[in-house]
Amino acid sequence: MNQFILALKSNKLNVDIHQHSAFQIVITDDTPFDSIINGNLNSRIFGFLIKPQVPHHCQADHSILNIINIEPYSSLGSYIATKLLSESDAHIFRSREEINKFFNVNQGTFDINQILRSLSDSSATAFSDERVLKTISFINANYNQRKIALQALADMTFLSPSRLGALFKQQTGSSISKYLLWTRLRHAIYGALNDKKKTLTTIAYENGFYDLPQFNRYMYEMLGVPPKGLKHNSDLIQVLTR
After folding, report:
1. Are the C-beta atoms of 38 and 89 separated by less than 8 Å?
2. Which CATH class for the 4-122 domain?
3. Any idea where the domains of the chain sit in the sequence?
4. Is the Cβ–Cβ distance between 215 and 200 less than 8 Å?
5. Which backbone phi and psi does 203 adopt, to 5 degrees?
């Protein structure tokens, strides 16, 4: 339920060196591209899977890139972290065949939706504690309120704030505040990509952010791209939550 996969398609991506809080998968079935990851140049690659907070840069002037951002605190984030245990910063894909093998999908074809299904199935999980489920349900229904107090959530579940916070993190891998932030971002991003006419300021307000600068800051911090760049240069493939 706290899993968040945001999949985008971007054309001719060329961004500055940046880092962000999400695991990120960048792959292409088009023209190979160049990427600098933690100061090392990787030329003519078909993609990479990168850990959070690793500085990187993409130059893909002639490529269409599929970009998958994964919430690090989710069950899928834990699964991806396990797959990358032996690698310091990133896993580089130097061929289409490597992509299919890594994600355990059919060889000889490239299907981004098949990769997304494989990722989702690999991390299927369920939370059994009713108090955690109740907290998640409340956040999902009220994320657009600008202030959700931990004490109110604790009162609702008949736990102390510290006990609820510990139980929530034990079951989901995320703090309550991070889960709330990712939920707001997910809805704001979905709104930005599905309603190109609506202003980013309106989208920020509608999804619980205090103002556009706060939305800008968290968006860049979590995903490495400002809302404006996302809105005008990307198309939504899929948003998956669990």
Report:
1. yes
2. mainly beta
3. 4-122, 130-227
4. yes
5. -60, -40
Q: Which two tokens stand for residue 52?
A: 């959070």
Q: Which CATH superfamily is domain 130-227 in?
A: Homeodomain-like (1.10.10.60)
Place of tokens 């299919």: 100
Which H or E run includes 121? helix 112-122
pLDDT 10s digits, 106-123: 877 778 888 888 887 776
Quick check: 120 and 130 in contact, CB under 8 A?
no
18, 23, 77, 140 from 165: Cα distances, Å: 31, 23, 19, 17
CA distances from 89 to 47, 71, 124, 237 (A): 14, 17, 25, 26
Amino acid residing at 136: I
In this structure, are residues 5 and 238 in contact, taking their beta carbons and an 8 Å threshold? yes
DSSP code string of 162-196: HHHHHHHHHHHSS-HHHHHHHHHHHHHHHHHHH-T
Q: What is the pLDDT of residues 48-93, one digit of tens each?
A: 999 988 999 888 777 788 888 888 777 788 788 888 877 778 999 9
